[in-house]
Amino acid sequence: MPRLELCGALVGAKLFKKISESWRISFNNVYFWSDSMIVVSWVKMSTNLLKPFVQNRVVQINDLTGELPWRHVAGKDNPADLLSRGLPLDALQQSDIWWHGPEFLREIKNESSQNDVQVLDMCEIPELKSNNCTISCLAKLNNAFPFERFSNWNRMRRTMCYVLRFINNLRIKNKSQRSSGPFSSKELTESVNVLAKFAQQESHPDVYHALVNNLPIKSRHISGLDVFLDNSGLIRVGGRLQNSEHYSYNKKHPILLSSKHIFSQLLFRFEHIHLLHAGPQLLLATIRDSWWVLRGRDLAKQTVHKCISCTRQRGKTLNIKMGNLPSERLEPGYPFQRCGVDYAGPVFILNRRGRGAKLSKCYICLFVCFTTRAVHLELVTSLSSEAYLLALRRFLSRRGKPAEIFSDNGKTFVGALKELSQSFINNQTDIINYTANENIKFSFIPPYSPHFGGLWEAGVKSTKHHLRRLGNANLTYEEYSTLLAQIEAILNSRPMYPMSTDPNDLLPLTPAHFLVGRPLVAPGYKDITTASTPHLNRYERVEQMRQNFWKRWTKEYIGELQTRTKWQINQDNLAPNTLVLIKEDNLPPLKWRLGRVTQTFPGEDGLARVADVKTESGIIRRSYQRLCPLMPEE
Fold first, then answer.
1. How confident is the model at residue 292, as a pLDDT?
2. What is the DSSP letter of 351?
3. How many angstroms separate the most distant Cα atoms in the chain?
4. Omega within 30 of 0 (cis) for the link into 346
5. H or E segment and range at residue 414
6. For the chain, which terminus, N or C, has the lower number of CB atoms within 10 Å?
7. What's the CA gap between 416 and 422, in Å, rounded?
8. How far apart, in whole angstroms, are the C-alpha atoms of residue 198 and residue 195?
9. In angstroms, what CA-CA distances link 117 with 39, 74, 81, 402, 630?
10. For residues 95 and 88, what is the distance between their CA atoms, to the nearest angstrom?
């Protein structure tokens, strides 16, 4: 029967549409009447809740009638009901309702009680979809606020302020009384409470449902907090401080939140910045004045760890496993055949003796042998390339020609390489024979990576150790050169490996063993370590003694280089396109340049320790010890 009533309502709507279009008359007021409360309820409710037959016809009625009102009329006052039930002609001729309509239609200005239509309850309306579909629709409506669209706490709460002000202004008919202008503190507090209520309903729906219906709370972590609902519908912690008179209401009963909700994460970020990037302990203590966040300590640590400014300020570099020793340190050869060079200082020397002498800067140029760890010290008067070339010539004259020299990327050494190259080009006819015999290969470690040259850095440290013990004496150039020669002799007399406690063992090898067994230009000789001593002449016996030093060097010293004293585990690594900070010694961390890794260079062990970084000024090459990765890609 309700379906027939609905079809009759659809016919009436089509008839109204036909008449209004044919007569071309505009009506001041149009009302649709039906004596079926079910039909009126169908027309007024959402069509998504109706079954297809009813839904299709209700949609047609709404398209035809628009927002025109549908009202209920009693069956006794409905003229159409006379014909549907049947009536004699004599009675129809005398019926006042048929010829003049019901009485309440004549009282146009009087709002009768029948204008107030009461819609039936959902349980009384037929032709509705199943309850499962209704529940799923209601569950989607629980996400009342799009928290995931916001990344800023202040912007989120001000957005809610606009929404609440708009709703309140719609309820006020007098425009002069509507709110406008900047937000008040009361409006901001109200918006935060509304957002907290939505966050609680999303994070703890079971707790909220239990508190509303006075049911026991099953969650073990929340039941111990003695939670309750306040007058605003917020879940607050009961706790044990309610008898205190010195604390505020928010302190005694903080609002319950979940650390996994976006609302809590934005709140912690806002307070972290508001407290000038405070640490986890202070951040959590401040938050707990008004909020009780489950697992709040973990969220505080996570907030501080993910803060970009705090990450830049910490400036933590990468820790890569210590690499294998290069082949240059493991191959026997003459001392200083492969060596490294570095500068130490400045130190001060007197320009002359006697009164009126002035102090001037000078520097120590240190050469260290890769194989024997022998040290050679030279005093230079400046950091210029000319001074370095003079020191290099003195070194070549005293220690022999090295095959390869390693150094860092100091401007002094790079300039010397360029000057040597330019000198070779400009004076080819004069020095062509010299360069054929004494061509030296220069190799440079990555810029700003002193740990790549740990061998000569250790030599600088040992040299300064002895210089500091001599006090603040002011020496001339000759006196200081003599002092450096004495320190050089001391350093070259150090054992190359730990000494044995057995008095019957041989004396430990020292770099001096390798420096005094041959002339500087002595040619190479065949291996005679296994030859019979009586059959050798005196020169061969001396050569055999020198070669025995290398035999002991292989057995006793090389084994001590196996262990890694630090950087034993590969903890970090860099992937291409990683955002990094470039560590600089003379600048604070917040002023370090930003860059993005473009390429890494793995070594023979498969671990990369150097990378090319693209900056705003170009591509530079740095070691991992100078790169601080920012937030990893998630």
1. 92
2. S
3. 160
4. yes
5. helix 411-426
6. C
7. 10
8. 5
9. 12, 12, 20, 106, 64
10. 11
What is the reported pTM?
0.52
Half-sphere CA count of 25, side-chain side, radius 13 A:
8
Residue 235 pairs in a beta bridge with 229
**Are 618 and 612 within 8 A, CB to CB?**
no
CA–CA separation, 340 and 448 (whole Å): 16
Which residues are CB-contacts of 629 (< 8 A; sequence separation ≥ 6)?
318, 572, 574, 578, 579, 580, 581
Parallel, antiparallel, or unpaired: how do β-strands 608-615 and 618-623 relate?
antiparallel
Give CA–CA dist 187/178, Å, rounded: 13
pLDDT at 276: 92
Per-residue model confidence (pLDDT) at position 375: 92
- Three-state SS at 246: coil
CA angle 70, 73, 78 (to 5 degrees): 120
Neighbouring residues of 24: CB distance < 8 A, sequence distance ≥ 6? none
What are the structure tokens assigned to 377, written together?
Answer: 């010290």
Identify the sign of the CA torsion 521, 523, 524, 529.
negative
Which amino acid, 234? L
Mean pLDDT in consecutive groups of 10 residues from the start of the chain, 634 residues = 83 84 78 82 81 86 84 79 76 76 67 54 75 42 78 92 91 84 90 93 90 85 86 88 84 92 94 92 92 93 90 79 76 84 86 80 90 90 82 87 79 55 42 45 74 82 82 79 85 77 69 62 53 64 60 64 68 82 83 89 82 90 85 57
Strand ranges for 235-383 from DSSP E: 235-237, 255-258, 291-294, 338-350, 359-369, 375-380
Sign of CA dihedral 302, 304, 305, 307: positive
User: DSSP labels for 602-616?
Assistant: E-TTS-EEEEEEEET
- In whole angstroms, what is the distance from residue 22 CA to residue 422 CA? 103
**Nearest-angstrom CA–CA distance, 62 and 43:** 7
Where does residue 518 rank: exposed (0-12), middle (13-18), buried (19+ CB within 10 A)? middle
The residue type of 124 is E
Two tokens, residue 218: 């099953």
For residue 427, list its beta bridge partners: none
